[in-house]
Design a protein that fits this description.
Length: 497
C-alpha cells in the first residue's frame, strides 16, 4: 500500500506560508550548526563526534524534505493534520536533496568584500556570519530592514544578504527602497529565504536582486554565488572608476584647450597691432621719397608678406569667434557675378606669376542672394589661393557658379589641375590646425586656417562645403550658399514674404 502511495505521489496539504517558514527556520539552524560542528571536528577533533553530527544534519534535512514534499503554502488559516507516517522517513521525497558535500571553505582565488547580513532571527544571522567569516569575508549584521537601510547609508558594503520574511519591513520592501536610492542602487543584493517558491524568486529578480538563495545553504553554492556577485561588482566599480577618470581627463583637456586658445588669442591680438603699423609704413614709403625699381620690388615683397601674415592672424581670430558663437553674419543682397569678379581680381596677379589660367564659368540668369559680402569673398579668395598654390605652372583653375538643384541656393565650385589631396586628408583639412599632420607626414600639402574659416563661414550661412580629389588629377572644392538667410527662410515657410 505504501509503495502505491509513493508511486502515485504523496498527498499534499495546504498550510500558511508563514507556518512553513517557521517550521523550516529551526531545522535550518539545526542543520547549519551541526554542519559547522562537523567541519570543526574533522579539522581539530574529536573525530568520534563526526558520525553523530552527520546523522543530526541528515535528520534535519529529511524533515525539510518531508515539509517540501507534503505541504504547499497558502493564505488559508486552517492547517491540515500532519500525517508523516504516509511516507516512511527513509523514503520521503527530497529527504536527501539538501545533503551538503564536504567543501573546503578556505579562501581560494578569494575576492575580498564587506558583507551585510540582514535577518530578524539571531540564529540565522549567527550561522550565516560564521560561514562567511570562515570564507574570509568581513561581515556586519542587521536585525531588521530599517536598521539595514541606516547601516547602508552610513557605511559602504560590497554585498547584502537579505532575508525575505521579516516583521515590520519585509525583504521585498527593503530591496525596493535600496534600488530606488541613487547612492545605493548599485549595491548587489542576494535574497535569502526558507521558501523556494518560483513566484518569490521572480519577484526578487524583477525588483533588482542579483541572486536568490534558499536555506539551508549549500556551502559550495553559497561560495560560488558570492564570488560571482562580488566579481560582477568589482567589474562595475572598475568601469565607474575609469569613467570618472575619463571625465576628469576630459575636463582637464578642456581647461588646457581653453588656456591654449586664450594664449593664442592674446598673442594674435598683440601681433596684429604692430603688424598693421608695419603694413601702413610700407605703403607710405613712396610718399617719403623716390625709390628705384630694386627697392620697389623689395617693398612689394615685404607688403605682400605682411598682408599674408595679417590674413592668417585675422583667420585665427575669426575661427575663434565662430567656435565661440560670437561671429555675426552681416547679410546684404549680392550679385554672384560681382562677387566672383572681385575674388578673381584679388588672385589674378598670383595666377599670372605662375602662368596659370583662371577660368570663370557663370551660369546665366542667376538670382541675387542674401549673404555676408566680406566673408563670402574671403571664402572664394581662400579657395582660389589654395588652388593656385598647388597647381603647377601651365595648369588651370576654374571657378564655376550655378544654381542648386532645388533653386534655393547658389553653388560655387573651385576646380584645379594640381597634385590632388589624399583621401585620408579629406576630413582633416577642414579642422583647425589640421595641416600639422600633413606636414609631419612629409607632404607639401598645407591648407592652413583658410579652409577652417571657409567651413565655418559657409555653415554660418546655412550652407555646406565638400571636397573631391584624385591624386595627380587635381581637386574640387564646392559649397552652397542659400539665397535667403535662415531666419527669412523660416519666415517664408510660414507664409511671410
Amino acid at each position: 500500500m505504501q509503495q502505491e502511495t509513493i508511486a502515485s505521489g504523496p498527498t499534499r496539504y495546504s498550510i500558511p506560508q508563514a507556518l512553513i517558514h517557521d517550521l523550516r527556520t529551526p531545522l535550518n539552524l539545526i542543520i547549519g550548526y551541526s554542519e559547522m560542528l562537523t567541519e570543526r571536528a574533522r579539522e581539530a577533533g574529536p573525530n568520534e563526534f563526526v558520525s553523530d553530527l552527520e546523522k543530526v544534519s541528515l535528520a534535519g534535512q529529511r524533515l525539510l524534505g518531508i515539509i517540501a514534499g507534503n505541504f504547499d503554502s497558502t493564505t488559508q488559516t486552517s492547517v491540515a493534520p500532519l500525517q508523516a507516517n504516509k511516507v516512511p522517513l527513509e523514503e520521503s521525497p527530497r529527504a536527501s536533496s539538501h545533503v551538503l558535500p564536504q567543501v573546503n571553505e578556505a579562501p581560494m582565488n578569494h575576492i575580498e568584500g564587506r558583507l551585510l547580513v540582514v535577518d530578524d532571527d539571531q540564529g540565522n544571522r549567527d550561522v550565516l556570519t560564521q560561514r562567511l567569516k570562515k570564507q574570509g569575508y568581513s561581515v556586519a549584521t542587521a536585525e531588521n530592514g530599517h536598521q539595514a537601510l541606516e547601516m547602508l547609508q552610513a557605511e559602504a558594503y560590497d554585498l547584502v544578504l537579505l532575508d525575505i520574511m521579516m516583521p515590520e519591513m519585509d525583504g521585498y520592501e527593503v530591496l525596493r527602497r535600496l534600488k530606488a536610492n541613487h547612492e545605493l542602487k548599485n549595491v548587489p543584493v542576494i535574497m535569502v529565504s526558507a521558501l523556494s517558491e518560483l513566484d518569490s524568486v521572480v519577484r526578487c529578480i524583477e525588483l533588482g536582486a542579483e541572486d536568490y538563495l534558499t536555506k539551508p545553504f549549500n556551502a559550495v553554492l553559497l561560495k560560488a554565488r558570492l564570488g560571482a556577485c562580488l566579481e560582477k561588482k568589482r567589474g562595475r566599480d572598475r568601469e565607474m572608476k575609469l569613467f570618472d577618470q575619463l571625465q576628469q581627463n576630459y575636463l582637464r583637456l578642456q581647461e588646457l584647450e581653453k588656456l591654449r586658445d586664450d594664449l593664442t588669442n592674446m598673442i594674435i591680438h598683440d601681433l596684429r597691432t604692430p603688424l598693421t603699423s608695419v603694413i601702413a609704413a610700407i605703403q607710405t614709403l613712396d610718399v617719403v621719397g623716390p625709390v628705384n625699381e630694386g627697392q620697389r620690388e623689395i617693398i612689394e615683397i615685404a607688403g605682400s608678406g605682411s598682408e599674408a601674415l595679417l590674413n592668417t592672424i585675422n583667420s585665427l581670430l575669426d575661427v575663434d569667434k565662430f567656435e565661440s558663437g560670437e561671429m555675426s553674419v552681416d547679410y546684404s543682397l549680392l550679385s554672384p557675378t560681382e562677387i566672383i569678379t572681385s575674388a578673381i581680381g584679388q588672385v589674378a596677379s598670383l595666377a599670372n606669376e605662375k602662368g596659370i589660367t583662371l577660368v570663370p564659368e557663370i551660369s546665366p540668369g542667376l538670382p541675387w542672394l542674401n549673404a555676408d559680402e566680406n566673408k563670402l569673398q574671403r571664402v572664394l579668395v581662400n579657395l582660389l589661393g589654395n588652388a593656385l598654390k598647388f597647381t603647377p605652372p601651365g595648369g588651370s583653375v576654374t571657378l564655376k557658379v550655378s544654381g542648386s538643384d532645388d533653386n534655393q541656393a547658389i553653388r560655387f565650385c573651385v576646380q584645379d589641375t594640381g597634385e590632388g589631396i589624399p583621401p585620408e586628408e579629406f576630413g582633416r583639412i577642414f579642422e583647425k590646425f589640421g595641416q600639422v599632420d600633413s606636414r609631419k607626414g612629409g607632404r607639401s600639402m598645407s591648407t592652413g586656417l583658410g579652409l577652417t574659416f571657409c567651413k565655418f563661414a559657409v555653415e554660418a550661412h546655412g550652407g555646406h562645403i565638400v571636397v573631391e580629389s584624385v591624386l595627380g588629377h587635381g581637386s574640387s572644392f564646392s559649397f552652397t550658399i542659400p539665397l535667403s538667410p535662415p531666419s527669412l527662410r523660416g519666415a517664408s515657410a510660414k507664409g511671410v514674404d
